[in-house]
Amino acid sequence: MSNVRVRFAPSPTGELHIGGARTALFNLLFVRSAGGTFVLRIDDTDLERSRAEYIDKLIDSLHWLGFEWDEGPYYQSGRIKEYTGEAERLLAENKAYRCYCSVEDLARARDAARGENKTFLYPGTCRNLTPAAEESLRKEGRGAVIRLRTPDHGTTVVDDQIRGEVSFENEMLDDFIILKSNGQPTYNFASIVDDLQMKITDVIRAEEHLSNTPRQILCALALGYELPRFSHVPMILAPDRSKLSKRHGATSVEEFYNEGYLPEALINYIALLGWSPGEDREILSLEEMIESFTLQRVNKTAAIYDVAKLAWMNGHYIREYDPEKLAEAALPFFRKRGLVEGDLPAEGYDYLKKVIAAVRERARTLVELADAAEYFYIGRFEYDPKGVKKAFQKEGTAELLRTLTGELRSLETFNMESTEALYHAVSERSGLSFGRLIQPTRLAITGRMGGPGLFEIMELLGKEKTIARMEKAIGYIESLN
Ligand code: GLU
């Protein structure tokens, strides 16, 4: 194993968003191609917004995607001692100081800055308090935060593996808080302390954190550790270039699962949001992605999310999927639709696989797959009104179906070949086109105008059901007149 170590550090404040899933994926691709260690860390220091149920959901989503980590999960909430220890060390070395400014004082200063259209920067009020002054503030009962002493001038450079060097003026980075008065660390401090103590070599995360990175670098330098390398992956935007949100449809991994996407398709799709393997290849397995992944091939500019492309890709995976795995993935969707109930005996499972084989060609999601399979399970359906006009209301259709039903009934072996041969024979004998026979039959036994091959459907339904449905359709057609 190499010494490369990465971490994925979600905050359990919501479901795993596709942006987060992509960050996890890029970390995984990077670390697997380097033969390193993938650490999972739960950033749960925001006590108000973090929830245990979201931790479970995050972990379920990662498992469903097949993103296996090598270490963790570590929980930031369980590491308060570590943050306090590092903050105390900075205090002792005079690289940090206690600040007793009240929330009201700071709010007033912030309002004043806003009034002058200036960015509020902490003015350094408590920077050089004497021990005696501190003592008396403490006696007043004032709580204190701990702030990092940051340089007043010069620049802090983030040497980003994707974007190149990004410089930040230290003037603009004030003495920020590392530990709050309740003893909780701020995100910037907890994040970098963990990265350093956990010997993370590469921090790969969302672009929204780029502005935090100089602060984390200043912490790392003050703490005296070697810096990790940083990479910030570009945003994912909606087609109208706005922030991707609920109104654009599914955005969390759980929602994509519920809409019937396969993990491999989702992974393949999100990998290409901001990264490309170099050639025009679009369908890639995880192994192939690992083989060709480099951070240098990650785009600097935002990626545009395109649900039609994802659906197309999912359709591809549905067609190519291993039949056993597809049946397993599709079964919950068949249940949800009421097509399958209770335990599925072996022959039921066999039937499910055959049905799926018949309908998978055109389905783009597992929801569409279950929809396309409905008439294989349920005989009560409405006839497509367009089909009724086109196929049922033609002169002589009831009679035609009656003839066909009679012929079908006399078949001893009822399968794809025998039914097809029968239809050919009737077509020749009657002088009616093959299509003229097929259209009303299809509508009669499926209620629909399109779908898999008619004779495949007949074989799967079997003789009894096929004939019962034909008879029902004859009755229906006669009731129209
Ligand atoms: N917990 C942070 C988030 O969910 C990520 C922090 C990081 O990767 O440094 O946005």
What is the 3D shape?
elongated
Write down how many β-strands occur, each being a DSSP E stretch of 2 or more residues.
12
Q: In terms of per-residue confidence, which ranges show pLDDT below 50 for 5 or more consecutive residues?
A: none
User: What's the CATH architecture of the largest domain?
Assistant: 3-Layer(aba) Sandwich
The helix count comes to: 20
Structure description:
With 481 residues, the protein is mainly α. The protein has 4 domains: 5-78 and 236-304, Rossmann fold (3-Layer(aba) Sandwich); 80-233, HUPs (Rossmann fold, 3-Layer(aba) Sandwich), CATH 3.40.50.620; 321-377, Orthogonal Bundle (Helicase, Ruva Protein, domain 3), CATH 1.10.8; 385-480, Arc Repressor Mutant, subunit A (Orthogonal Bundle), CATH 1.10.10.350. 49% of the residues lie in helices and 11% in strands. The protein contains 20 helices and 12 strands. It has helices at 18-34, 52-65, 80-92, 103-115, 131-139, 187-197, 213-223, 253-258, 263-271, 286-292, 307-320, 323-336, 346-359, 366-372, 385-392, 397-409, 416-430, 434-446, 454-461, 463-480, and strands spanning 5-8, 37-42, 71-75, 96-99, 145-148, 155-160, 164-169, 177-179, 202-206, 229-233, 236-237, 303-304. The strands form 5 sheets. It has a 3-stranded parallel sheet with strand order 1-2-3, covered by helices on one side. Strands 4-5-8 form a 3-stranded antiparallel sheet. A two-stranded antiparallel ribbon has the order 6-7. Strand 9 (202-206), helix 7 and strand 10 form a beta-alpha-beta unit. Helix 1 (18-34) packs across helix 10 and helix 16 runs antiparallel to helix 20. The protein starts with a strand and ends with a helix.
